[in-house]
Design goal:
It contains 15 helices and two strands. By secondary structure, it is mostly helical. The protein has three domains: 24-98; 102-190, no CATH class; 193-301, no CATH class. A two-stranded antiparallel ribbon has the order 1-2. Helix 13 (235-258) runs antiparallel to helix 14. The longest helix has 24 residues, at 235-258.
Length: 301
């Protein structure tokens, strides 16, 4: 008779269970939660959510996919406020949770090369990406990233932190491919990083503003949902988009929902500010548009 020996959990699994709980240990848990929630979702939202869950399991793990489902579930049920563009929110939420860090680029390049069992290919084309130091350093745990970023500030090297570092992702040689695999496997460290913590805060704030608009100004909800597409990519593109998003939220959305800015057509104001941010000096143009909208609203009182 064959005796089955129970293998004890790895130290990483025990650490993960300590911080994330014991519920999500296997992809089937996330898939079961998806099947349960799908029965309550609108027909046009189901394929988007399904694709997002399977992709997020590959991007990170089942825990991350369940976090996505928990966020989607806020807008399902009799007590939830009806969301006019639920499918769009589901897609943008998925896009934002797939944030681009060096680990993500390594995952994509490795998948292009053939996955974990890929062999070196001398004919493949290297992928070269530029990341800012203030994106690379936050890949460390908060207790290590914060002192490093603070040191940049103390030494007046903030400009250096905004400079780019060029990373090459290659599968041409065996060593380069192995390095690619190591970096892709580093996804297990992502939940413990400062960057992961920041992204979680950002997504929650975006959804919080969507929730507030559903109560205060439902007609502006679509415009607020769509502000998420300002933030994409990495490097300067990511940082500029984040700055523009914060300008709209802090200058228009939050004060309107707080009742300190009389802006009855918030959705139109958001659209006007975004349309101003076209061409050169887009960020400065958007900041100017937001300030002008605020002055007009206050003068109208």
């Amino acid at each position: 008779m064959r005796v089955r020996v129970r293998v004890p959990p790895s130290p990483f699994r025990l650490l993960k269970e300590r911080y994330f709980g014991e519920e999500t240990r296997n992809p089937r848990v996330a898939r079961a939660a998806l099947a349960k929630l799908s029965a309550r979702l609108p027909a046009d939202v189901v394929p988007i959510v399904s694709e997002a869950v399977h992709s997020l399991i590959d991007y990170q793990d089942p825990d991350y996919a369940l976090a996505y489902l928990e966020r989607i579930e806020r807008y399902v049920g009799p007590v939830a406020h009806p969301l006019p563009n639920f499918a769009e929110l589901a897609q943008l939420l998925s896009d934002r949770m797939h944030f681009e860090d060096p680990i993500r680029i390594a995952q994509l390049k490795l998948a292009e090369a053939g996955g974990p069992t890929a062999e070196p290919d001398a004919t493949s084309v290297d992928r070269i990406e530029k990341f800012r130091w203030d994106e690379v350093i936050p890949m460390l745990p908060p207790k290590a990233a914060a002192p490093a970023l603070d040191l940049f500030q103390r030494l007046r090297l903030a400009r250096l932190a905004r400079r780019s570092v060029t990373l090459r992702f290659s599968s041409k040689a065996r060593f380069k491919l192995q390095r690619l695999k190591w970096l892709a496997a580093a996804r297990i460290t992502r939940p413990f990083s400062e960057r992961f913590k920041r992204e979680k805060v950002w997504v929650e704030r975006w959804l919080h503003m969507v929730d507030r608009s559903l109560v205060k100004q439902p007609e502006a909800t679509v415009a607020i949902v769509r502000t998420a597409d300002l933030i994409k990519g990495h490097g300067d593109t990511y940082q500029n988009g984040l700055a523009e998003w914060n300008a709209i939220i802090d200058g228009l959305v939050k004060p309107t929902c707080d009742g300190t800015l009389p802006l009855p057509k918030l959705g139109d104001a958001i659209q006007e500010a975004r349309e101003a941010a076209i061409g050169e000096q887009a960020q400065n143009r958007l900041l100017s548009a937001v300030e002008e909208l605020r002055l007009r609203a206050l003068a109208g009182t």
